[in-house]
Amino acid sequence: MANATPVRVRFCPSPTGNPHVGLVRTALFNWAYARHNEGTLVFRIEDTDAARDSEESYEQLLDSMRWLGFDWDEGPEVGGPHAPYRQSQRMDIYKDVAAKLIDGGYAYPCYCTTEELDARREAARAAGKPSGYDGHCRDLTAEQIQAYEAEGRKHIIRFRMPDEATTFTDLVRGEITVQAENVTDYGIVRANGAPLYTLVNPVDDALMEITHVLRGEDLLSSTPRQIALYKALIELGIAKGIPEFGHLPYVMGEGNKKLSKRDPQASLNLYRERGFLPEGLLNYLSLLGWSFSADQDVFSIPDMVAKFDLADVNANPARFDLKKAEAINADHIRMLDVKTFAEACEPWLRAPHANWAPEEFDEAAWQAIAPHAQTRLKVLSEITDNVDFLFRAEPVFDEPSWTKAMKEGSDALLRTARAKLDAADWTSPESLKEAVLAAGEEHGLKLGKAQAPVRVAVTGRTIGLPLFESLEILGKEKALTRIDAALAKLTA
Ligand code: GLU
Ligand code: ZN
């Protein structure tokens, strides 16, 4: 699979808070592309915005990447030939490049104030002209610059866009041409000397010899600017070439609106807390803009990597569908071996939660019920409601379940069922089923209707794990006591 030139891709988020699923999808596609092509994944932290980036967000980001199962060949914690990989530690590099760009005439100081820019933009708009930067400071003379400085004006640094259209072939959307008037000279260094994303991102991509830039469609508009900057960097001997660009489609959420970072559904932590398996979530996210095959939605991540090709990435917006994500996760839960499944549930079983006290937890009962639970869960957090009946001294009746299951005649049915269960073989779920079936027959009820009151009496809920296995694991004494308690509640 090795390409002619080795593939070098990068994942370069800003560590601002809890990662969102769009970011995870971008990381996944870059990682899969690197692994598929036996290339290099560079993980770079774009933390130049001191106001928004915190050490805590950085730690969170690394923790998320590890949880998802990603590895990287260069970056935080692993180092590499282009270290450091945190932009906050590379400020001298950007200062140096900015100075070279000015010296070479590729960039210039712009002294326009916000008010002046706004006023001229308004005027251009009113005249029906393009409203981007008008090139006011492009060719200031030394005297003009001196005069501005004497006034005490501050300046930003602007990159000089060439007066020509930009054409490039996007790996996802094909050939794209942007006219010069739509991309005006843009800021690369703030008035306070802080370099901007517009500078640091392509400079690092150049220095880190990135061959493919795969990122979200929201960044498509910055590509013509970056290509122009690359050409300057090549002329200055800083860049070797221009990478290829591929823009991954938008992810649409509720109401066909772009899934926003603030959307609760977008938060990676939500999926962790609900008990998605990383491989289930990644399987689902890989389908946002890509497909494995026409008839297969569920696959392992190694299989995804083996098949991943940019040619199969679709330019159309992808729709985020939580139900589908859960269904795919459920399939991944089934794919685990029982032991791994049981271990994966531990955080929910051991957490101090309302359902049972830690000392009520029964390891043997858990091991016995785990295989039955594994076939039922969509997300691991559902485990607590499904097994709490085993650990609590008494079931807590879910009100709607009680109302639904306990109808007129339920007490008579329960009494018969109790008697037959009392006589049944409690080492055999089959025998317990026979008992409830026979009780139902006496009252003219099919198995489904006959077992509902028994289930609610014993587990507290109408829905749950297979009933007769549950009864066997709970044990005769507890089960019959609970049926007695339900009978007492019914006749009270
Ligand atoms: N730090 C940028 C972001 O998170 C990276 C954009 C890019 O991939 O070029 O939006
Ligand atoms: Zn200006």
Layout of helices and strands:
Blueprint: E1 8-11, H1 21-36, E2 40-43, H2 55-68, H3 91-103, E3 107-110, H4 114-126, H5 142-150, E4 156-159, E5 166-170, E6 174-178, E7 186-189, H6 197-207, E8 212-216, H7 223-235, E9 244-248, E10 251-252, H8 268-274, H9 278-286, H10 301-307, E11 318-319, H11 322-335, H12 338-350, H13 363-374, H14 383-391, H15 399-405, H16 410-423, H17 429-442, H18 447-459, H19 467-474, H20 476-491
Parallel strand pairs: 1-2, 8-9, 10-11
Antiparallel strand pairs: 3-4, 4-7, 5-6
Bound molecules: glutamic acid and zinc ion.
Glutamic acid binds next to loops.
Summarize this entry quickly.
The chain is mainly alpha-helical.
